Amino acid sequence: MLDFASDAFDLGWPCVCEHLPNSIFRLLSVYCADTIDCRLASNQVKQIIAPARFIHLGCSAHFFNQMERKKTIMTGRLIRVAVALYLVAWLTLGMPAYAQGQAQQGSQTSGQTSSSAQTPSSIPYPNLLQGEDYTQGKRSFPNIFAPYTRRFVPQPDLTNTPTIYGLIHDGKLELGLQDAIALDLQNDLNITVAEYTPWIDQTQVMNAEGGGTPLGQFVIGGGGGGTFDPVVFAGTTIADSVTPVNDLLTSGISTTTPNFFAIQTHATQINMGYSQELHTGTTFTAMLDSTRSSVPPIEEAFFNPAVQSTLSLSIQQPLLKGFGLLPNIRFILEAKNTSKIGKLQFEEAVITEVTQAETQYWILVADRQAVDVAKQTLAVSQRLYQDDVRQLQIGTLAHLDVVTAESEIASDNQALIAAQTTALQQETVVLNLITKDPMDSRLQGVEIVPTTPLDQLSEVPNITLPDAVKEAWTNRPELKADQLTLDNDRIEVKATRNSLLPSLTLSGNYSSTGLAGVATNSVFTPNGTASPILAEPIVDQNGNPVLSGGVPTFVGNPNGTVATSTTQNGVGTAYSDVFHNRFPTYEAGLSLSLPLRNRSAQAANAEAQLTEREQQVSLQRDKNTIVVGVRQALTALQQDAAQVVATVKATQLAQETYDDEVKKFDLGASTTYNVVLQSRDLNAAKLNELQAKTNLAAALVSFNQALGRTLSANNISIADNMQMPIDFTPVAPLIPGTINGQLADPNVFGIRANQ
User: Fold this and answer.
1) Which of 127, 174, 175, 513 is most buried, by the most CB atoms less than 10 A from its CB?
2) pLDDT of 223
3) Backbone torsions φ then ψ of 745, nearest 5 degrees
4) What letters, b where the CB count within 10 A reaches 16 and e where it falls short, cover 40-61?
């Protein structure tokens, strides 16, 4: 058929296609009007007709001189019918295929549009930091052994949350933006790691409240520490000894025993006490001691065995160094501030990860749409190639044009492969953000299909730079952390200033003693006679014996009978003496310690002041950094918004240019290649518009991060140990600044509003 038509044109029949254009164009409009393929087919018909018109205009005189008119008319009609039948058959076989391809592409596009409608997240946000309070230790009541047992810390959960598997349908993970954020909060290991920092800081609060110093830190300058936890102590001692002596006057020696040069004693001692250091630096100690002792029977002992109990109370109060609350609770205040800093650092980590999740999600959306654009460009190139091949077969196009079209297909195919590779790599990035274990077998081969389109972006906020900077200074967690760090430095300055003072300690002691035991009593009853002691005469003041009847007078011992009785009293009697204050002792004293050079304290105070000055500069530096970041984010947001407007306009103009080129093509004033070029430009404009919208989405995310709006914009809350659990449901989303529908305390982290 093609050879027949070619021969007809070579013969130069003037009337072969004289009446074909209108009829063929009507036929084209019937088959597939308003499609690219139909317009290309129409242009091919025009290119077939054009040589016939050229032959008619240039060779009609020569033809009529060679042939008879009737034969020419009959032959021309036969050829016209044959060409018409050929074109109809070609259009019937070729054009519906193009139309069908366009219909399928249109159905796919509409299907993507319908599936890309944003739906509320079906995954509730986790209540971050919700769990045990590590600032509180185990109490000794009712279980007195609880403080001496380890605290259970659960193992980390390194498996994916089950909610991710509910989004998988037919091998595709249908992921909305809010779902991506929820899964990121649940599974992002960076958030999981950052979550341990506030909990570790809470243990430092408990350590400081117990009187300890910061773990792993050597504190210069004194102050703080001690034992704020009460301590109860008890002990017992049993001793049995034989001690040699060389002095008969030593108490406890019996001269009636053969071993009079030794002392044999037995003692049992029991003591218990209570001590504690108060936040004012006061140290208080109370102790009760009881000792039971026994020696061999001797005349000098009142009680044998004897029980002696002593109650002693002592108190010490610094008057200069270490005086007051601040030097003694400095570590508690600093640990609490550090705990707040840990929460703020965790909040900053969450903001960073959520920002990354949003940004990577929009990049994935753009990459997948870029794949669609690359497919459309490749389809246009393929249609151009097919059209050029047909024209080459009918002899209306050079072979070089076909090679050019084929080269364009190879280039577009390469671009498609690159776009698909980028999209697959981006899926891996997103999967790593929303999973703890991306190698889970249930996730292998799963395609991530984002369902939130770029067209559903939030409106660009209208805010001035001063207002944006003021809001950022109020919301940014790093500035709050800097302020708390500066507060800690100021505490250190005051505490080390106190450590410069000399030590002057006022002490007081009180003790009360009781004594009891087994006492032996002897009662002598005289009989009226006496036995003189010849060695002891009575003398006068001059030392001369006093005579009685000329006989010296001697001292005598009365004679009589002795009755012995034993009285037994124990620890109860001793305690009665103690608590009735029968044998008290009172003591008070002052102790002064005056370092002559005091270099350590001076160095500690100087270091604290330097650290405070350094932090003041750092705070201002961070403020300036935030100003730069806010300015850049605001500028990028405004520029990207303007870029979106410009690219949308460029896409509209490219569409109009393409439509005009198609109209020219319909009128025969353009070529297929020009139409394809305009189509490629239109696709490039759409790709630029897609990139501009992606940049705007990323700019919105960065703008929220710069102003500290990320958490409030996504209704994410950081739990506090004192807060009630927050209900996160998609039915009733939280309003920023509220908790469970109630206005939240603006001082969420215990930070003053002016900070």
Assistant:
1) 175
2) 42
3) -65, 125
4) bbbbbbbbbbebbeebbeeeee
Pairing of strands 172-175, 447-450: parallel
pLDDT given at position 46: 39
Torsions phi, psi for 686 (to 5 deg): -65, -40
pTM listed for this prediction: 0.70
Q: Any idea which residue has 């009712």 for tokens?
A: 142
User: Any residues with CB less than 8 A from the CB of 168 and at least 6 apart, and which?
Assistant: 174, 442, 446
Distance set, CA 431 to CA 124, 180, 288, 428, 434 (Å): 19, 9, 68, 5, 5
Concatenated DSSP letters of 320-345: STT-SSHHHHHHHHHHHHHHHHHHHH
Question: Would you place residue 401 in the very low, low, confident or very high pLDDT band (cuts 50, 70, 90)?
Answer: confident
Question: Which residues fall within 8 angstroms of residue 96, CB to CB, at 6 or more apart?
Answer: 31, 32
Tokens 């209306």 correspond to 396
C-alpha dihedral sign at 611, 617, 623, 627: negative
Does residue 727 register a pLDDT over 50?
A: no
- Cβ atoms of 160 and 436 within 8 Å: the answer is yes
* Helix extents (H) in 435-508: 465-475, 477-499
Q: What pLDDT band is residue 457 in, cutting at 50, 70 and 90? A: low
User: Do 694 and 362 meet the contact criterion of CB atoms below 8 Å apart?
Assistant: yes
| Backbone phi, psi, residue 39, to 5° | -65, -40
Residue 435 token pair: 């999973």
Task: Supply the pLDDT for residue 670.
Answer: 74
Other CB atoms closer than 10 Å to residue 596's CB: what's the count?
5
User: Which residue from 16, 25, 90 is spatially nearest to 56, judged by alpha carbons?
Assistant: 16
- Name the one residue in this structure whose structure tokens are 């259970």: 152
Alpha carbon distances (Å) from 389 to 9, 12, 46, 90: 20, 24, 16, 14
Reference 2, options 100, 96, 86, 104; nearest CA is 86
Q: How far apart are CA 224 and CA 237, in angstroms?
A: 34
Check residue 144 and report its DSSP letter: T
Q: How many CB atoms lie within 10 A of CB 337?
A: 22
Phi, psi for 504 (deg, rounded to 5): -130, 115
- Find out whether 566 and 520 touch, Cβ atoms under 8 Å: yes
Q: How far is CA 596 from CA 221, 500, 605, in A?
A: 15, 11, 17
**Distances in whole angstroms, Cα of residue 555 to Cα of each of 530, 538, 546, 552:** 9, 7, 11, 10
What are the contacts of 383-389 at 24+ separation with CB within 8 A? 383/36, 383/37, 383/40, 383/98, 383/676, 384/408, 384/672, 384/673, 384/676, 385/409, 387/40, 387/44, 387/672, 388/672
Two tokens, residue 342: 């840990």
Lowest pLDDT segment from 108-112, 406-410, 614-618, 685-689: 108-112
One-letter amino acid of 57: L
pLDDT, averaged across the chain: 76
428-444 confidence digits (pLDDT tens)? 999 999 999 999 999 99
Nearest to 185 by CA among 339, 362, 355: 355
**Which contiguous run of DSSP H or E holds residue 286?**
strand 283-294
What whole-number distance in Å separates Cα of residue 375 and Cα of residue 368?
Answer: 11
Please answer whether residues 382 and 445 qualify as being in contact, where contact means their C-beta atoms are separated by less than 8 angstroms.
no
Check if the beta carbon of residue 468 is closer than 8 Å to that of residue 638: no
Amino acid residing at 699: A
- Break the chain down into helix, strand, coil percent, rounded to 5: 55, 20, 30
Over pLDDT 70: what percentage of the chain?
72
Q: What is the per-residue DSSP string for 339-370?
A: HHHHHHHHHHHHHHHHHHHHHHHHHHHHHHHH
Contact 545, 539 (CB under 8 A): yes
CA angle 19, 21, 27 (to 5 degrees): 110
